[in-house]
Write a structure and sequence with these properties.
Helices cover 63% and strands 6% of the residues. It has 46 helices and 14 strands. A hairpin with a 2-residue loop joins strand 4 and strand 5. The longest helix is centred in the first third of the chain and has 27 residues.
Length: 976
Amino acid sequence: MAVGEGTTGGHTPALRFAVLGPVRAWLGERPLASGSPQQRALLAALLLRRGRTATAQELVTALWGADPPQQAVAALRTYASRLRRSLAPRSEVLVTDLGGYALRLGPFDEFDLDTVAKLTAEAEKSAATGELPRAHDLYGKALALWDGEALGGMPGHESEMERDRLAEQHLLLREARLDVGIQSGLHAESVSELTALTTAHPLRERLRELLMLALYRSGRQAEALAVYADARRLLIDELGVEPRPELSDLQQRILNADTTLNQPTQQSASAIPVVRPAQLPAAVPDFTGRKAFVAELGAQLASAEGRVMAVSAVAGIGGVGKTTLAVQVAHAAREHFPDGQLYVDLQGAGAAPSDPAAVLGAFLRALGQQDTGIPETLDERAALYRSLLDGRRVLTLLDNARDAAQVRHLLPGTPGCATLITSRVRMVDLAGAHLVDLDVMSPEEALTLFTRIVGPERVNAERNAAMDVVAACGFLPLAIRIAASRLATRRTWTVATLARKLSDERRRLDELQAGDQAVKATFELGYGQLEREQARAFRLLGLADGPDISLAAAGALLGRDPADTEHLLETLVDTSLLESAAPGRYRFHDLVRLFARACAERDEQPPAERGAALARLLDFYLATTARVYAVQRPGDRLPDHLAPTASPGLGFAEPHAALDWLFAEADCLLACVRQQAEGETLRACTDLLLAARDLDESGTFSRQFEQAALTVLDAARRSTDPLVEGRVRLALTHAYNLAWRLDEAEEQARHAHLLGLEANDPVSSCMAPNERGGIAFHRQRYADAVEYLEYALAAFRRDGNRAGEASALTNLSRAHSSLGEHELAVRLAREAIDRYVELGSSLRLANGHYALGVLLTAAGEHVAAFDELSAALAGFEENRQRVWVGMTYIRMAEATLGTDAPDGSAALAERAVAQFRDVGNEWMQARALTVLGRALDAVGQPGRARACWQQALTAFEKLGSTEAAEVRNLLGSVGV
């Protein structure tokens, strides 16, 4: 075997890796064992970083998301060790670096994403030079590398995001292949694929353009114009916008029988409008000193013209003023870069550094590139970026870079352009870069900066004390700014007061030596200046999981009234230790949160106060969520059966305000559940899930809700408390039922029912049989459904739960309808609606109208059914129940199909498809596609109907759903 054909140049075979499908690896032609899902996820995460070192925390987040196991880092090391063994005898490619890991492939190793990038680049080059058949073939080869869903079966939020990105890349490649295919004469062959794609992606206007052109070149002018009419109608109905100019122009050219449409067209790079970005942040007005550095860097930038690699990298400890210096120098050099200045904060000091591909996407947009023209892969974006900058004079400021690997793809590499980089590390491995090491300020510079912020009058009166202050700050600019800002806003303090506070700093010089310790020292300085109540607030706020925290929630956590809480939080904002995310909401920078937690573990006395603070937060969330539930579901007894709370919670004047609060707090509330699902707070966590079920029904937070419920279930099993376990299984039943995972839902409902009876719990013993009845109905076991639902109805009545009684009546009506007892079914449905009207429950009233609409549709009373379903839709939209909105669109489409004018059915079904695509419910989306196909078939579009049904069949078969048989019959009826 020749070198480069499966070997590394010696006797050891080359490695091959694939993520475009299941994550797999080969040594030569021998498949390698890839281990558990987490081990494969580790391999995928390292592959996707293209040789860049990933920290242990990054990889823990990639594998387990926001809720890692307790020993996540230890487990990560185990997976890395197993992965290294599986790669033998090439285990050296898995490198341990600074506590993290990297996968460094050799020159003859292969990675399918790299192969796709190379094939795509070759295809684009061939298309640009007119070699269209070759470009079509190369695009086809790139697409052939996909073997099912990318990262198939991989767990974790990162894998989910990458799957979406790779799916979009796959679609862009299909668009490109179809484009060159049509240009090279394959228009007739392209029509079928484009029809299916436009059905699957009805709002993607580029696909519509290609379909119109293919149809026109195939002699099907009327169909081409119909595609435009369909697209315009859909865009107006769905988005309220007209088609983009390219689509409208194509329609006009078809109407005019433009002969040039039969000729291949190519878009040149010159069509991109010239944009001159000006993204530099504002320079600080009190910039001080650094004259030598300003001169040195300014000279480097001024000489960029005629040099290919005009790169300067400024390195130094955190808080030393790298960004301030770089921004000052960049503004001074603007005249040398008349074509624009780009800026990005690369977040290199945080746990999630910016992805170079995402940065390039933002840069390309800033340079005038349209989204549709931005390629997906990192290499392609970098190539386009360099192309756009060729011949231009642009300055790029890459702030807060993690390492050289993060910035290499962001360098222009063309004469006349320059790049200025700031980082905490010296980029000695960045070839050709001019390196600058930025040290702390001189004493004179530090005192000048302090004076400019505080004011000369106060400083001149206490000059020695001022020098003590800046010396205590280690002459670090960020620390000086924090100290001076506090003094400037406290007129009763003297400079000596501040100097005395700073003199107590411990281990300051040790912690200023290097790396993250320098950042911690800066935070420690600000923390040490806090007054007692401020410091307590800082520590305790850092304990709570979640992206941010509201003022009311912070007050509960701290045990302080709203006015005192706001004062404390605003003073923390003044010190830059806390950020004001929005009015009434606050957040920590990630590293500051970690520091705050460390302070709480070290300083909070008594230690039990940490747990008490989190318990107060949970108590507040439970009390307020119970009040939201009561507002949304009047007459429901669940709030009466929840764990008692010390907090009264927030009150709401009207339902919309209650829902606003619930959805705004969703991430924090569910994070709180995951964090405290143990011990004495387990019952409250379980009850909070039940009270927050609207988050699940909304569709927006379904995945997070399920994850929180699974965390609670794991703890409930260990607790051996039947009431708690029954309730969390009830929450999971509801989640699985909405996701149409009926096997799992039925199992959870059975356990919940039995545990509810064991614990004599009115919640599980009433709600679980109601859920079991619904599940039995969906599985077409109608007699079982009636039995469960009559049991639930009696249980709700014994509990005095009128809302639960109405829910059981609604479900019971549908079961009797399926048994052919139409009159009884309608009577029960109307009885349920009457109950909901009496209770004033707009959300559950919508459920009643929905059920009655379904019954009337089955009975052939389509107009009446549509009226009921319209009322249901209004209620669901008002209460932001996206899953139910989508289901109602499906039912409205079915009702419309039964009328003499079925034209509107397709539009309704399209809305359902779009709704479930957004929500991510695969079963519901397949159901909507089934109805969409029926609607299209009814209005004379059997081709598109078949495409819809084929997609639905694929999904149903994947899910093992009985609805697959119905779709096969539909496909057979139109002669597939």
